[in-house]
Amino acid sequence: MSLLFLWSLSSSLTLSPSSTLATDSECVLLSGFDPGFVADGDFVIGGIFPLHYNQEMPDVNYTYQPTAVRCNGFDPRAFRWAQTMRLAVEEINQSEQLLPNHMLGYKIFDSCAYPLTGQRAALAMLNGLGQAHTHVCSGASPLLAVIGESGSAQSIVVSRILQPFKIPMISYFSSCACLGDRRKYPTFFRVIPNDDYQVKAMAQLLVRYDWRWVGVVRGDHEYGHFALQGLLRELKGTGVCVAYQEMIPLLYNQQRALEIIEVMRSSTARVVVVFSAEGEMTPFLKDYMAQNITGIQWVASEAWVTASLFTTSEYFPYLGGTIGFGIRQGQIPGLRDYLQTVNPRRYPSNPLVQQLWEALYGCSPSPSPSSTLIPPCSGQETLLEQHSAYMNTSSPRVAYNVYKAVYAIAHSLHNLLHCQAGAGPFHNRSCAHSTNVHPWQLQHYLQELAFYISGEEVNFDLKGDSIPYYDIINWQRGSGGNMEFINVGLFDGAKASGKELVIQEEKIVWAGHQSKLVVSVCSASCAPGSRKAVRRGEPLCCFDCVPCDSGKISNQTDSIDCTECPEDYWSNADGTMCIPKVVEFLSHDAMGIALTVIAVVGACLTVSILAVFLHHRTTPIVRVNNSELSFFILLSLTLCFLCALMFIGEPTSWSCMLRHTAFSITFSLCISCILSKTLVVLAAFTAARPGNNIMKWLGPKQQRVIIFSCTLVQVLICAAWLMAAPPYPSKNIQDQRSKIILECSVGSQLAFWCVLGYIGLLACLCFILAFLARKLPGNFNEAKFITFSMLIFCAVWISFIPAYVSSPGKYTVAVEIFAILASSYGLLFCLFAPKCYIILLKPEKNTKQHLMGNKK
């Protein structure tokens, strides 16, 4: 501490909340710290303001007594706040309604926007101005309350010093949420909203404008720390990510500042949220502008969004379009006139007034050795509009808070002094003594306070906080080229959740003097039809857009996952909506028509051959080997061609049962006829041997019995199939998930393969018998053609099995039809083409001698 009491050699100092000491020793100040302004009164309140915004630390090597922190960078804005406190006190002293017959006094100190200096100021308030004024050593504290501080870091220090003495403190600009902890800061009040509301408002602003990738710069103090933590808490689950977190050193360091600026330049985040005070932002922005960086959208906290220091034209190219939350503005009657009364002629010995003139006019009203580089001036210069840092009284915000804080103390003290005996709030329903008011007694009335000023109600909740309300400020170029703070909306924390933020978007000008909203995202939004895939090791806002898998959709922007379509639906080509699946079956499309034509041509060709045979039924080549069998084969082949037509079209219960049974029975009939013919051929040549009368067992009647019996077996298998588990129409959604394939389920797989197996058995038996008879004599050995026909038939149906199993959708049915038609054409051409050739083209060979191989 810079300020200590020195007691006599045998004494030591112990300060208690009552500050009562049982000793006659005198208090002597080791080090003085004079106030900027002071006025006596019946009740004294303190004021602490950051009249300077920069500090210069002394050289501490302990070879001599260290000097105090040197304050640099006079702040006319904070000086206006201090004058507002003086104005409020003078108004109250002149009022007949508020504190009549009592006078308020004040002591105003400079904190230099630095906690250490704020600490010195607090101790100086408690100690008094010298030995004659050191009433703190006996009786109640002459300091009833303190107006201050601006920065949260300074308020924390000052509040802790005042706490043992139960001296209430009302801050006009300290918004850190940490100060709402009543256990740590039981005597702290404020007329500025808690930062919990500001970070909530900022989070809503970032979400509203879809700024999902933002940087955060903060000051190295509790205000910046707690504001950052609160913002991160509010941003959880909103889709907004913080690209970087940088901290401006409390004692400004240009090298560190340039590192932060380089991070801002290189980052893809185009929006930067800043929780900082005017003091550290001033040199930081100077270095930022020196780097000539533009295009960044600044989002300012209430601590600097209305700082008049930044209204000059030099800031516009870099800070124009800044948007932020300013504390509530109000009206202070007479402030402008009062500020104009402050000049070096009226306060010739006040160094703060001298510095005000140097800051506003760049001249020194009282030349001294330290100001030889500054030209002299009279000190009577007129304060003009361009001195807005000091003279901006059109819409006071922080100054209005100072004004409210002073009146809050005055109203509380007024209520305390007008306490009715026997109805007081203290022990035994007592009241405070008007000549010996203790600070803790004043705090009780502060906590219960409620009054109106400029149409606004002022009160404090249990945490000492006031009603949360912010104006939304946008920095725009004024007509004179300077920056203007335009009110474009508000945030009212008293409203229902989600309705607090009201913005007039048409009035906003964004960074770069653009009407177009700045875009700040790590990754562009994923369009409907895709989903977000987070990149490993990166924040959630950095992602890749992955198209939805087939069968899944996303119909919203930035979908986290794709939704699977219902069973009978499929995703469209864009993956944005579910549409009914394509119902597929072998219809009369190009493929169906082609197969139909082939089948009809085959049937017509077979009927034509039948007609030729009927016409030439008396010729040897037709009569040989039982012409009746040939007619049966042609008839069954016609049915085989026609049964292929039953496989084309939408499956129904009847068509499913009929197509398989008709196919199996007709083919069984056909192969049975061929088997009978093969047996006849083989028996005919065997019967030519002496003593062999086998032909009597293979007459026409026996041939019919063979055909009927072989066909009957297949009929019985089909009957059992239809009774046990018949084929039925079904929707196949497994083979092709994007389609609904209407097909005929075979019902019983065993019955289906038994039907095919039986046809295959008949075909193999025919092939074996025909193969055995292939070398029998004669120019026209029909066994050779049966062998070829069965060879083709078996080859087709053997290749059919893997093709059938592996073909998707309607191609499964097409493969089955192809097998039917191919095998039918194979039988037709192998068995009857040679005969037709002789009948139609070589009639001279259509003789018994030629067929038997006897040459003339």
Automatic annotation (TrEMBL):
Stored CDD domains: 7tmC_V2R_pheromone, PBP1_CaSR
Keyword Transmembrane in record: yes
Signal peptide as annotated in the record: 1-22
GO-annotated molecular function: G protein-coupled receptor activity
Domain G-protein coupled receptors family 3 profile: 591-855
Main location: membrane
Topological category with respect to the lipid bilayer: Multi-pass membrane protein
Origin: domain of life: Eukaryota
SUPFAM superfamilies per record: Periplasmic binding protein-like I
GO cellular component, one term: plasma membrane
InterPro entries: ANF_lig-bd_rcpt, GPCR_3, GPCR_3_9-Cys_dom, GPCR_3_9-Cys_sf, GPCR_3_C, GPCR_3_Ca_sens_rcpt-rel, GPCR_3_CS, GPCR_3_vmron_rcpt_2
Pfam family, one: ANF_receptor
Keyword Transmembrane helix: yes
Cell compartment(s), UniProt: Cell membrane
Transmembrane segments: 590-614, 629-649, 661-685, 705-724, 750-773, 785-805, 817-840
Name under which the protein is recorded: G-protein coupled receptors family 3 profile domain-containing protein
Source organism per UniProt: Oncorhynchus tshawytscha
